[in-house]
Amino acid sequence: MDRPELSLQQLHAFAVLSEELHFGRTAERLGIAQPPLSQQIRRLEAKVGHPLFTRGPGAVALTEAGHQLLPAARRALDEIAVGLDAARRTGSGEAGRIRIGFSASLALTVLPGLLRAYHDRFPQVEMEIREMTTAPQVTALHEHVIDVGLLREPPDEPGLATETILSEEFIAVVPAAHPLAAQRVLPIKALADEPFVLLPRTAGPMLHDRILDLCRSAGFEPRLGQQAVEWQTVCALVEAGLGVSLAPASIRRIRLKGVAYRRIEPNSARTAVAVAWRRDDQNPLVTRFLETARSEP
Asked: HTH lysR-type domain: which residues (predicted)?
């Protein structure tokens, strides 16, 4: 069945007239003169091929054809109203679906508060949250798999924009039974003889290199031991006595009985947490997410 070309004005006039059953009151309600209203109804009747109203002295009533058309007309007008509202909300970044990548360790710091704030501001936006390390997030942004990423030590990547939203100090992660755990503040050089448990460089090259540079600045080349793609696993391997680590300060929220977290000296180095997005992305959902990220403490 071919779709008829119907004017929304005609459908609206028809729906209102079916409620008022009076041309004068309908014209007043629509804010138009009565002759244009009569023309709209006649044009709609011409497309139907049958009268939609009976017209008598002081009396207007729906015909059988009018009764058949009315439910469909109301549904169409309601659907258009819903569609217009959804389009406006989507165009302003207040509705739609946004795909967010995040590094697992950020669940210990900025992620919960940021997602809660964004959901509170834009409850009609559906969030698809994907856990992935920094390097896969960069790839996912380039391939349009995610819209924004929350990551550590963002690389300087062509086509991507980044903005730091948090800066964290580093801490030492050592077995609780190790003699080093007896010190409240550990010189980085005190870790020189210990094997290091780290995330693989492929998971986050910039963070991996920052940790190695901390060791080199303290005068030693770290001896790399076990690797794990998540900080919780790194801490578990440290608890097992397989080495030590240097980690972002928020990692101390991972509570393991056999692990001690200690401040380091010097402690001027910081690791950046950033939000990343495609530089040319005009998606209003991304714009609103960035606004929320910037406003969160």
From this structure: 6-63
